[in-house]
Design brief:
YkgJ family cysteine cluster protein; Puta_zinc/iron-chelating_dom; single chain
Amino acid sequence: MECRTGCAACCIAISISSPIPGMPQGKPAGVRCVQLTEDNRCKLFGREQRPAVCRSLTASVEMCGASDEEAFQILAQLERATAPATR
């Protein structure tokens, strides 16, 4: 499966704990990555500065579903299921 151009669910819905250029502390779930353009394209795609966690993500039906909306739902659910418990 190929990424859907302009989806960006993985760049918004999930948290990223590793540093991102412009976001040295990473990014919380539900926050747009500062490296997204207005049309939801990654400014770092294919560049060395792109975090390893981002490079390692591979589009799949299980992660992306059949639409951008479904991708956001799936990834938000995965984020909730894997987030550390708060006291």
